[in-house]
Design goal:
about 130 residues; two-stranded parallel ribbon
């Protein structure tokens, strides 16, 4: 059953997939990281904020905003959905200014393998996107 991109159901399904994926679990072993995502220009919603929290060998995605994050990633809905579909490479999105990094960017750079494993763990999710 398809879930709407960036919905509560998406966060729940993605969290379950991340925590069931051995490669992702291996990538986050011993890591503590909070990443705030800000997605702008969302159809029918304007902005969506969500958090990826990694601690104690597990991960959680949830709709929320936190002040004390390690790093933040801001992008438009179009960019976020293109990244999710695998149509856009994260490095290219950053180099072309389609994503903005805040907080401590070195935390993201040091743990690029986590984000590769993240994308791979979610690539088979059945996701619907806003038009």
């Amino acid at each position: 059953m398809a879930v709407q991109f960036l919905s509560e159901e998406f966060m729940t399904e993605a969290t379950a997939r991340l925590n069931d994926n051995d490669t992702f679990k291996s990538a986050i072993a011993g890591l503590s990281l909070d990443v705030q995502f800000v997605v702008t220009d969302v159809p029918d919603s304007d902005t969506i904020n969500y958090i990826l929290t990694i601690a104690d060998g597990s991960a959680e995605l949830r709709l929320a905003t936190i002040e004390d994050f390690d790093a933040s990633i801001t992008s438009t809905y179009e960019t976020s959905s293109s990244l999710s579909r695998g149509e856009l490479n994260t490095q290219m999105a950053f180099m072309t200014g389609k994503i903005k990094i805040g907080g401590n960017p070195s935390k993201l750079i040091m743990h690029q393998n986590v984000f590769v494993a993240f994308a791979n763990a979610l690539k088979t999710m059945d996701i619907t996107y806003a038009a």
